[in-house]
TrEMBL record:
Organism listed in the record: Leucobacter rhizosphaerae
Keywords from the UniProt entry: ATP-binding, Cell membrane, Membrane, Nucleotide-binding, Repeat, Transmembrane, Transmembrane helix, Transport
MF GO annotations: ATP binding
Protein name (Swiss-Prot/TrEMBL): ATP-binding cassette domain-containing protein
Pfam families: ABC_tran (PF00005), BPD_transp_2 (PF02653)
Amino acid sequence: MQQSDASAQRPVMSLDGIGKSFSGVPALTDVSLTIHAGEVHALLGENGAGKSTLMNVATGSLIPDSGTITVGDETFSSLTPTQATALGIAIVHQHPAVLPDLTVLENLRVALPSSVFAGRPAADVARELLGRVRLNVHLADRVENLSVAQKHLLEIAKALAVHPKVLVLDEPTAPLGSEAVAMLFDLVAEWTAEGTAIVYITHRMAEVRQLAQRVSVLRDGHVARADADISDVTDDELLSLIVGRRLASAFPDKHPANDDAPNLVIEHLSAEGVHDVSFSAKPGEIIGIAGVVGNGQEELMRALAGLAPHEGSVVIDGQELSAKALLSSSGYMPADRHHEGLIMRLTVRENAAIAALKRFRKGPGLSKRAELDLVTEQLRSLAVKAPSLDAEVSALSGGNQQKVVMARTVLARPKLVLAHEPTQGVDVGARAELYRIIREISAQGTPVIVASSDAKELEGLCDRVIVLSRGQVVADLVGDDIQEDRMVHTAVSSKTETLTAVNARPGGTSRLSRFLQGDYAPVLLLGVVIIGLAGYILGLNDKYLNAFNVTSVLTLTTALGFIALGQTMALLLGGIDMSVGPLAGMLVVIASFYFSGGAQVASMLLGLAAMILVSIATGLVNGLLIRYLKFTAIAATLAVYFALQGFSFILRPTPGGNIDTAVSDVIQFKVFGMIPVAFLLLLVCTAGLEFALKKSIWGWKLRATGSDEANARRVGVKINRTVISAYIFASLLTFLGALMLMAQLGVGDASQGVNYTLTSVTAVVLGGTSLFGGRGTFVGSLLGALLLTQVLNAMFFLKLDQSWQYYLQGLMILVAAVVYSVVRARVKNRVAAS
């Protein structure tokens, strides 16, 4: 018994003297934290206090500048995500570390160790994991189509899969409805009973009291209170430690009742997900939207923001506004600030100012001074903590990002303010500031509507609360009737059979929807176009499918096809490889010195070795420039483009070095009298790459990197290795294309090959691969190459001028881009509304 007690008291994990700075600004200074098995340890602090940074250090996402991490009997200066997982440390991030372009199953496979799926079908394991958190979605659904709550539950399922010794929950209840929160609390009780240590980060004091045994507080990157027994500290003391001062009431005074005429009147509004909603508000009143999460709150807010069509009327200050007018005159603060509320690559200043550019107009341009003055004043009033106005908004904590969204809304001076989960992930001190700003906006005569899953927030802030159930108004509460228990009771007891966000789409999307949103819809479309074009030309000229023409088309397709496969590698990463064309040309130039007439076998082997080495070196240089010297993909590969082109002309200022005809004959050898063996090799290579892309760890990591690099790193993908290896493979595939080009040209010519750069990009885009990375197919790229070659060949039969080649290529890209984007957008909207 004594040994058992000693073991129970031994920390399962300790962080000692952790320090971390970003751009010279300290985020953590000498922070220590001790975590015991079987306990919930609450970690509190304002936004930007360092909580998430500390936990990212603990789980390997960040490398600390100083300090040590002790897990059991082992001590480390830093961890990687893979090491942390192996040691039994898991985290559920405040912003889920999911890959939007991958399916639910692929997200699980890329994030979890292979041992989780050992001995059983992966789909069965995945369904079991999702079942533990009651997440009812299809395994083939793209994660980008899941709701915020569903993404959080997927993140929790990933954490549970590794049976962690230490589990970090970072604001886990922020997007969840009451049912999902209750389920999570039950799971927390189960985990701690089994000995799991839980670090619980939250801004909700009630959750701390309900779950935690110990509590630590961070303030400005320092420890304000460490390892305190929760029963030894009061809520007031905790709040004082968090903000460094005593807080008055979080909610400002409500608007006094009066007989003023309403300045907002909504009558019989219906849209996808909401039906016949009517309510009104007087000047100075704040309207709240309550209900179980997933019952039409978001759909109502989006309709009022002009982001979705609606029926019925919306009248503001006596003027009825259409959806188009609402889009330009409303200020919408979405719940998902990362994907809808902010432009993560822009700066804090740019995000805050972007909706209010008219206020900064000075003649034909903008006044930088006016912009700086107004943005600085607004951000200061919200106490936004940022390294500078020109820091990327992605570098801010979640709460400070939310304040930037609020600042942008205020600066735009909208006619209607719509705040959906305005304080999600925001600390108690910042909440009071946000409530004050919302009340001030309302007091100035601007109608304000707040949708929140926190009934207590609606009770304290709002003058009128509309309770929704299944998209319909089931209660309109005013004055003393606005009470938390009444809102909850009305929502859950409604006869409209409430839904939860978790199961808003039971079983996920339909098979047709998944196909139309998937990577193979463009492939099918390309196949139909290729067959249709062939049938049309054959109807005009019966020689179109003779052996000579088929051989010509397939031979030209093979050269372009291999290069397009390489280009696909780069585009799947969200990059591009401008060097493939000049590389193909230079490889042919190199070959012209080793494969000339009468060359010995040893010379040819040496030439092949030289071509392969140059290909590997080119891909390696591209990858190193992008990953270590921080070049953009287009800048890095364009620099290599010019270098290769220059070297080619140095080696062959004029065409020369005839390729041995015997070598060309071998490369262009045909079977069945018209099908090049090289084309069959292209088919085999495409099939192998496609299988690896969709079914292997390598393919998942490649697509994960292009889908969301930051989240891919969080789940353990080695980004540098993935990117560099992909560019090397791209160059090696270009080498195979260069062999075909060598046989076709028969001579070393430095001016050849350059056109393959843009042609390969065209083929890949036609095949449906996204220019933003994360989604695409090698099969589509092959068909894109075949279609381009077919179009070029068709001009001869149709007796068209060569300039039509460029017209048709441009038209095909335009049509493909429009068709793919429109189809995916419509399907996605249909899924979101279902």
